[in-house]
Amino acid sequence: MSSCKTLLDALRAGSHDQVLAALYALDGGQDGLVFYRRILEGSGEYLNAGGKLFLEIGYDQAEAVGRLMEQAGFQEIRTKKDYSGHDRVVWGTLGFPGP
Q: Model's pTM, two decimal places?
């Protein structure tokens, strides 16, 4: 709701940058995973080996995001459910580089 309100406010104000920011926040790409891919692609610049990354997900994205994390070199990937019993967070540990 707040993203929609922000978008409507930006449209009313005519702020091009705010409109684009709100639209990007609502659009996860064709499969809904574009931002997870971006975060994971750059995660090695911010995490040392052994560092943990936690990602909030939609209720049906745990498997896909977990696969993306594995492809990005994360290990010990786990999922945590919210109080409604839906998958809500996926996290993993950035692996150590091979020999």
A: 0.71
